[in-house]
Amino acid sequence: MQKRIGIIDLGSNTTRMIVMGYTPHHSFRLLDEVRESVRLAEGIGPDGRLTPSAMDRAVATMRLFHALSHSEQVQMIVPVATSAVREATNQAEFVARVAAEASVSMRVLTAREEAYYGYLGVVNSIDLRDGFTIDIGGGSTQVSMVRGRGFLRWYSQPIGALRAAERFVRSDPISNKDFRALESGVADYFASLDWLNVEQGPMLVGIGGTIRTLAEIDQKLHGYPLDRVHGYVLLRERLEALINQLRSMDQRQREDVPGLRRDRADLILPGAVILAHLMRRGGFEALTVGGQGLREGIFYEHFLVGEQPPLFADMRGFSVQNLARIYNYEALHAAKVRDLALSMFDQLRSLHHYGEWERMLLGYAATLHDIGLAVNYYDHHKHGAYLVLNSALQGFTHREIALIALLVQFHRKGDVDAGPLRAILHPDDEQRVLRLAALLRIAEYLERRKCQVVQDIMVEVGDPVRMVARTIGDAAVEIWDANRASRLFRKAYGRDVAIC
Amino acid sequence: MQKRIGIIDLGSNTTRMIVMGYTPHHSFRLLDEVRESVRLAEGIGPDGRLTPSAMDRAVATMRLFHALSHSEQVQMIVPVATSAVREATNQAEFVARVAAEASVSMRVLTAREEAYYGYLGVVNSIDLRDGFTIDIGGGSTQVSMVRGRGFLRWYSQPIGALRAAERFVRSDPISNKDFRALESGVADYFASLDWLNVEQGPMLVGIGGTIRTLAEIDQKLHGYPLDRVHGYVLLRERLEALINQLRSMDQRQREDVPGLRRDRADLILPGAVILAHLMRRGGFEALTVGGQGLREGIFYEHFLVGEQPPLFADMRGFSVQNLARIYNYEALHAAKVRDLALSMFDQLRSLHHYGEWERMLLGYAATLHDIGLAVNYYDHHKHGAYLVLNSALQGFTHREIALIALLVQFHRKGDVDAGPLRAILHPDDEQRVLRLAALLRIAEYLERRKCQVVQDIMVEVGDPVRMVARTIGDAAVEIWDANRASRLFRKAYGRDVAIC
Lengths: 500, 500
Prior knowledge:
The structure is a homodimer.
Chain A: E1 3-10, E2 15-23, E3 27-36, H1 52-71, E4 76-81, H2 83-86, H3 91-102, E5 107-108, H4 111-123, E6 131-136, E7 141-147, E8 150-157, H5 161-168, H6 176-189, E9 203-207, H7 209-221, E10 233-235, H8 236-247, H9 251-255, H10 268-282, E11 286-289, H11 294-303, H12 315-326, H13 331-347, H14 349-352, H15 356-368, H16 380-389, H17 398-409, H18 429-446, E12 454-460, E13 465-471, H19 476-484, H20 487-493, E14 497-499
Parallel strand pairs in A: 1-4, 4-5, 6-9, 9-11, 13-14
Antiparallel strand pairs in A: 1-2, 2-3, 6-7, 7-8, 10-11, 12-13
Helix pairs in contact in A: 1-3, 4-11, 5-6, 5-10, 6-10, 7-10, 8-10, 13-15, 13-18, 15-17, 15-18, 16-17, 17-18, 18-19, 18-20
């Protein structure tokens, strides 16, 4: 990690800074994140001016962030401001104050740039090819259309969770009258958005604090087994039910809702109404939640410097590699286990009938199979699964992450059991794990001494299945161990396997 | 980790090798462990000879272990044999075969050495000052008396789980007659052991595969919240109940007992009977299970080279440091957080009335508070707790490990909630965590930029409590953040705190 960059995002409601350590094109990791509820857009009147007290709060926060990034040895700070500053009639005065008093030169993003960086954060962290992104902020909402991973068009309205709350909500709990005004007011803002439509692209991704919070509340309500918002699928049906619950609560009751931060309790309902409106309008039954947005989008522009547009060519492959490197994996060993497992997979297609998707999962699991050694030798298969489930892996669905984690967990011993993860798997996934883990386990034992003594494996699909190892040097240890590990194979395929 | 050592333990039932990476006196970690159920002592007749097939199995295994350690770049192999070889009338023949066919020069341990190394493994991993260790192997059982951590006396009998099974068990499920013969046969072996007595030393520690397995079965039966055998307390009452259950099962039923390996299913009952007999005889109601024994004892002799006897002067302190180093902790930051937290602790004694034990836990938690960053920045407090719970920390009870893990978990945000760990805490421990975490959290935020700008803190115990930071340089960020973190303090102590 040769470089450190700090990215500050001065939003209408929340101000955040992330600090990333990175080596361009090679590896990165999040080192720090700070969040402050500045509410810069609060109290803006008909004159469109940021209020003095809001500006004071923002300047104080920027000073703190600047000091923080300074001591964290950040070489470059990228401070951006979004809709609150963009639309303020006293923008110049505010930007000058921040420069003078906090030594920070803000870059005020245009609405298009705000939409674009949000899009960049999404397509570099979620497997979105054709569809839309929605970014609901405090002061504005951006919608972008994505086609073949490209940024096709965008739409922005100066209505976000904070502005909608200030404009339409005057009662607590919200009165029916206010709620109707909120709904129709939101609808008015988006009346001219005529291209958000599930038929134009099947996938809808949502980002921003409001949407992440809605996902967290939904997860907690339903005992979701993963502690992971990025990639979570929020159903519209559940969102509408949640809106109905929130409508009947007053501020205090909302503050007690698990997953909802106190400083967002007054904004969550207006934010949810915006989201529900857009989903209904576009005909989307489900939304994939993105944990990365504007700030990460700006980061990727630096990380992928030279790429135009700055998109990962192979997001998943990169991300798996990045994770493996963080835990100092043994690259040669992992690569050989991967080759052997994939070779068996290919030669056994007539038995398992799986395709490229399973092959990909098996390969990634092989790359990551030993990362749990970083925690403790004992139970390192379990620790590896924990690390996968809690990692910042990009581009995978939760189901895929669960499958990779289970393959890591069962790569060396034990009978496959998905446990609580079953809730996010499909009915036949446990068998899928069993069949893939059986191959991974044999491959792992063929690499028992981690010295690539088994070069390749030839599979004869009979009953029993015969596997002949091509070796350089004495592979007695490996052959013996691989045969011991073949019990899972019998369970997975209903045939014995003889390895020699 | 400049050195690698492989330690092979050729037991009567199981043969194991561990590979340790280490820098003497500084740091170590387990890199690999292999286990093979050789059953060397199986089938020994009245002539006392190892059988040809048992020797073949042992030679093959030693050859494999030798090859394995070779490719793992082990610079030194220490292969030891215990009672099966020690008592074999054809010992010389066997040792010569292993040397010729596997290139391994076995060292045959005397009964005293076997007891001594087991003791060394125990006192370097469990806080045993005065008491006893029991090591139940396949072919023999060792009992040692420990006084002031020293090795006072020892006792050994050539009866272990495997030998007892061969000698007394001829029915499946075991008949009442066989069971009585087993019990009285075991009692006969230990008739002359007259100094194993709870009044001679209050703590009893048990090691070896049989005892670890009994602990695992007991944990699984009762839904124990930690996945950790080392340090587990097994109650005699529960052991006796388990024996009654095992008595009624046949081999197949035992093979299905969760926590019981198939290759040990026939030995577990005889092993349990030996343990129960010794506990009853010594008047012990509880046994602390040790996960380290003979092999680790031999390792510590190398790791602590120069110490006589090779004991950690400060086992817990070393172990915490070792863990922190594994995760590349920031030493200066951790040390400052520790100093600040302990300084507050000392100055607030009139409020919390805690003593040296709590002070120690707080200090260790401060050292480890950020290790979760190795997993993921997001939720690193939770990951840190996971790492502590799953680490190889030595010298702590499970309750202490849970307390340290909870302090790490709540060092930066959230309300204290012990969750499933409550099952191993005392009733007032959650408040203990709350009060200590409140200090740790303030200390952490006083080190917000990790640059030691806050040098020290003066506490005035009034209402509100006032804390005055002595700083070098501008500490506005830290003071501001520490005040934000003071909500937990109010909850813990019922008073506000003002930091300036």
